[in-house]
Amino acid sequence: MSTADHPWGRVDADGTVYVRTADGERVIGSWQAGSPEEAIAFYQRKYEALETEVVLLEQRISATDMAPAQAAATVQRLIGSIGDANALGDLDGLRVRLGRLTEDVGHRREEAKAAREQARATAKEVKERIVAEAEQIAAEATHWKSSGERMRELLEEWKAAPHADRAAEAVLWKRLSAARNAFTKRRKAFFATLEAEREDVKARKEQLCTEAETLSSSTDWGPTTSAFRELMSQWKAAGRADREAEAELWKRFRAAQDKFFTTRTEVFSAKDAALREHAEAKQQLLDQAQALLPVTDVRAARSALRGIQERWEQLGAVPRDSREHLESGLRRVEEAVRKTEESQWRRSNPEALARAEDTVAQLRSTIAQLEDRLAKARERDDARAVRNAEEALTARRAWLEEAEHTLAEFSS
Fold first, then answer.
1. 199 and 264 share a domain?
2. Alpha-carbon distance 246 to 198, whole Å?
3. 21 bridge partner residues
4. Using CA atoms, how far apart are residues 16 and 27, in angstroms rounded to an integer?
5. pLDDT by residue (tens digit) across 307-362?
6. Which burial class, exposed, middle or buried, applies to 194 when counting CB atoms under 10 A from its CB (0-12, 13-18, 19+)?
7. Which of 170, 191, 212 is the last residue in one of the domains?
8. Same domain, 264 and 305
9. Same structural domain for residues 142 and 160?
10. Fewer CB within 10 Å, N side or C side of the chain?
């Protein structure tokens, strides 16, 4: 075997492959499967694969939020891989780059530590704000429903917030609990005097029942549905009367609702029946349209389809769950007729025929030239030229097959 040199190594006559590093030469393998140049190429590819790992790690560290611990572990793994790598290239350079990454990871660890400390400080500020608002609500709130909801929101915000320093958080949690307890006591004391308010709620709900009973005979479906929805919102917002009155008023209110919505459902059901009749008629038209396929007489098919389309439009709307099936089915028939018309037109187009014939002739000429080139390349044993000629012939023959298929359509 001959020898071969490389900027970062060499191959001896006996096939031993060496890599050069700052520590001197090191054996990385023995090559008996081919030429020294192939050995160099093989071990250089191994280096390139190793270098690619380093490049990807550099990119991940610089462009993503890769965890410092994960980055450090990956750097150390790569350093270990380089130490005994059977690869031909600038291994010392890779070590230097990994050394720089080690420094970068160290900086990131310090930044992460500082970020954690800042996060704790920020969390403390957030929870101090939550506690301060809760204490204000506990001392001043008079709108019990909204204030109670806000108290619950503050508790959820506390749970969702990041953790602060444990000691500081314990003190803040004690204050928050005290504020919530104080608010609950004030609210209970207030509701102990609610009898007069419950009488007001009863009067309001009696009025809502009267309005609902007036609307129950309406046939103005859309606005009345919205009006009932608004009455329901007002009912919920009005509060609660005493239990007996609440049950009786709700019975009246619900009866008025049921009367309106039952009537509306009956009317809509009748409309749905009409729409289903339209759908059945359109299905029959669709069956007639689909019977036109495959198209053999374009003119007759187009005339028949036009009549189907006119009757289709006259029928009007169909149920929503049938619409897509019917419309898409008719569109497919229309598309098939259109494509047949276009195909017939193309077959009768002399310019397109001439272009197709010219394309086939050019491809046949090119293939003949490539076959001659391939034969000559084989005679001089030029493997690269043979490969290029074979690839070109494969492509041109595929193009010719497609072009001949297109040309054949003109005579079909």
1. yes
2. 10
3. 24
4. 7
5. 888 888 887 787 888 888 878 887 888 888 888 777 766 665 666 667 777 888 88
6. middle
7. 191
8. no
9. yes
10. C
